[in-house]
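Table S5 (text form). Sequence records supplied for joint modeling of the two-component complex.
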Amino acid sequence: MFRRKLIVSLVAWLSCLGPLWAGGGEGHHALPLYAPQLNDFVTNSMVMVWLAVGVIVLFCRAATRKMSLIPAGVQNFAEWAIESLYDFLAGLMGDHLAKRVFWFFGTIFFFILVNNYMGLVPGVGTVGWNTVDAHGHHGFTPFMRGGNADINMTAAMAFTFAILWFYWAITENGLKGFLAHIFAPKGSFGALMMLMMVPIFLFVGVLEIISIAIRPVALSFRLFGNIYGGEQTLEALMALIPKALQPFLSWLPAFPFYFMELLVGFVQALVFTLLCAIFLKLICDHGDEAHH
Amino acid sequence: MITLLAAQAAGDAGIVETIQKTFGLNAPFFIAQVINFFLVIFVLKKFAFGPIQAILEQRRARIAEGEEKLKRIEKQLAESEQTTAAAIAKANEDAVRLINEAKQGAAAFSEQKAQEAISQAQQILAKAEAAAKADRDRLSSELKREFGRLVAATTAQVTGKVLNNDDQKRINDEALAKIEG
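The corresponding structure-token record, covering 473 residues in total, follows.
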């Protein structure tokens, strides 16, 4: 009992010291909010994205090189992953819509997942070079940075979805149905009541438009914030170790949080996919019913 | 982006600029990441989702086909069981009929043989009786003849008279009548 109290006290004491060391100006610099440029055309997060693309290509090739009706090894795993995600989406959006849009949602989920996990590989964010800016401030630029810790990447996915959302919504409902879905009164009213409801639903429609406009921004910043926050946390935890011991022990405080980041990586991929799926399902609801 | 554009259109350029600077959001890198993202979509669609979904569909079709076959086989099995049961029932019926026929045949044969045996036995008995009767008749006639001869001889010696044939016949008949009477 005493030992437990002692450990808890020690951890609390170290936690208090952490920010002191982290902010003590002893060489630790917070992870910048933006992905630093390696040259005029490439940022370090783009390098990670390319690596993620490479990993995905290799995995796909390994999984589909020798396809057989009785799966084994990598093919088995790939089939399990894809089928599970498909069934999950089909349960949410209906089979018709899932069949139509799975290529996008599958890509979103696996791409975010691979990027998130690759951002946890040792060396990402920690291997780089020291820099000195025009004002004489010392800095550190890593060669690689998690793909989703760059707002350009998350925004690219979110805005691609936003455009495709319009396309799918209009093709599923028709332009008239799409506009009716946003502005038309829902429910059955008498003539007088309907007259009163029209301006209300028009106002609701305007709110809906604002909500639709905000969605990709929210999606971008949610994913970026979670992944950036995770990396920042790991970085700050590594900086808890005194500078003299950092080459040997900086991994220690961050180690338990890697497990949490593994969970966060999966959850964030799922949340992004799920939200996109729900947004699409909401607008295509009538279309889907018609298909059934 | 739409919000940012809207804010920009409203003349609130400062906020957009701050966001762009703070987060490093800029058009070339945004476009580059969109291209990267489409590259991933292409790769996954062509090399992962396409082939894997095709094989999943193929497997689903095969499973459905297998289930269909299984149903057909079960139906055929049920029909076959019915046919077999009917055949077995018919075979049982035939077997019972044959056994009954055989039993009847055996009984008739046995009866016939018994009748034959009885008939033969009766014939043997009749023959034996006929033979016995013939023997008895023969012995009786021999005995009668011997008895007659003895009676005649005795009568001739006692009376000292030579007996003619009529005497002998009369004495014999009288003697025989007394014996048989």
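Note: Residues 191-238 of chain A form the longest helix (48 residues).
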